[in-house]
Design a protein that fits this description.
It is built from 7 helices and 10 strands. Strands 1, 2, 3, 6, 7, 8, 9 and 10 form an 8-stranded mixed β-sheet that branches. A two-stranded antiparallel ribbon has the order 4-5. Helix content is about 25%, strand content about 25%. The protein starts with a helix and ends with a strand. The radius of gyration is 16 Å and the shape is globular. With about 210 residues, it is an alpha/beta fold. Helix 2 runs parallel beside helix 4. Strand 1, helix 2 and strand 2 form a beta-alpha-beta unit.
């Protein structure tokens, strides 16, 4: 229920999703980790967001991520594929053909990049990261999760991550950001692995 309460504080999912919409929900599915390890978005939160979209009349809800570990293992072991499909979403893997080069006028560092077309062209794009530690940025929230819609050599982003990520976020503007803080990874992110690094908070934030 914390997921619903967070969105209700913004006026409800109906503010963002209308009847007939195609909605992209982009959780963090980047790592071959279980939900308890808090490296990926909690599948229960993903499921609840999908259900809320359908309740408002969404025609389709699409769920994907460009993973860091093996996609099949990430989708299965995170619990997200099963939870999302049971909630009625279409779950798919990001493939090269799905990306299109986008020019980013006004940016000083990140002037263009291949981005996932479905995320960019959906009627509603919901960014659904998990709150966790990251070895370079210190924290992973909404901006870092946007890297999951990037094609190409994302390793280059880490060269100037404090310049690139804000410019990516200035160009890619999700309609809704929902941050899963039901379990947070306090150390050794973004991949984690040790349950001693995880703290249960049962919180969700929306903006």
């Amino acid at each position: 229920q914390v997921t619903r309460k967070a969105v209700e504080l913004l006026g409800g999912m109906g503010r963002f999703v209308k009847k007939g919409y195609t909605v992209v929900v982009k959780p963090n599915i980047g790592w071959n980790r279980s939900p308890a390890q808090a490296a990926n978005t909690n599948p229960e939160v993903v499921s609840e967001v999908i259900k809320m979209c359908f309740e408002e009349g969404a025609e389709k809800v699409l769920v994907f991520d460009r993973t860091c570990n093996d996609p099949k293992r990430c989708y299965e072991n995170s619990g997200i594929q099963d939870a999302a499909e049971k909630a009625g979403a279409t779950v798919f893997h990001a493939v090269d053909a799905s990306f299109k080069e986008y020019e980013m006028p006004g940016n000083k560092y990140l002037k263009s990049w291949p981005l996932h077309q479905m995320a960019m062209e959906a009627d509603c794009f919901i960014n659904l990261p998990i709150a966790k530690h990251h070895g370079i940025t210190e924290l992973t929230f909404g901006m870092k999760n946007l890297m999951g819609i990037m094609g190409g050599n994302r390793g280059r982003i880490h060269w100037k991550i404090h310049q690139y990520l804000p410019e990516l976020a200035a160009f890619v503007k999700p309609d809704l950001n929902i941050i899963d803080a039901t379990r947070i990874l306090l150390r050794h992110g973004p991949q984690g692995g040790d349950l001693n690094d995880v703290e249960k908070r049962d919180m969700v934030f929306a903006s």
